Amino acid sequence: MPMLTVKNLEVYYGSIHAIKDVSFEVNEGEIVTLIGANGAGKSTTLQAVSNLIRAKSGEIRFLDHDLRAIDAPKIVRLGLAQVPEGRRIFSTLTVQENLEMGAYVRPDRENLNRDYEMVFERLPRLKERRKQLAGTLSGGEQQMLAIGRALMSAPKMLLLDEPSMGLSPILVHEIFNIITDVNKSGMTILLVEQNAKMALNIADRGYVLETGRVSMSGNAQDLLSDEKVKKAYLGG
Known about the structure:
By secondary structure, the chain is of the alpha/beta class. The chain has helices at residues 42-49, 72-78, 95-102, 112-122, 124-128, 139-151, 169-184, 196-202, 220-224, 227-233, and strands spanning 4-13, 16-26, 31-35, 57-62, 65-66, 80-83, 157-161, 188-192, 205-210, 213-219.
């Protein structure tokens, strides 16, 4: 059974029909990516999964929980953590305090130190800057912190919304290496990303969104070599 199932999702912004009959699934241990042009509905889909935006209709199930019936803060407690677009770190708190905020929902306080060490091992730059105010970090370091903060909630699945946005090519590679590393540790990942080439290179499967609909789906490598995908999203 898939870890996350989305069926016939419909989302409106007022009278604007943003998401139209979108269906997809994510199996345990996979990286699944949603790709598409700016405004295709990728981030809206992710926010609907987290119930940050209320869907008009459709089904969203995570580990057999009906997410449409659960408030966003409680969804984190179920093991679904979102790394938001634009990072949204707490800029006036230190790196350490941001990580503590990520762990706020956890009942198992006894494993916190182990998980801080896990985050610092994966993201050594955060360890060097743990007492630094988060707002003084570079864009790439803030993205690492946003990922680290989400990992501190001990999730079963990560939702990543445009993690490469605004980063230099070198930092984009670094962030994608971190995502791959986190996935290899057993973390399931749903990745929304405008950099289709990078996303498909690390994903198991992909879904292409066009104006709020899934226009194509399949194995990530097959999508990478598909002429339509190449022409539209890979500069080929």
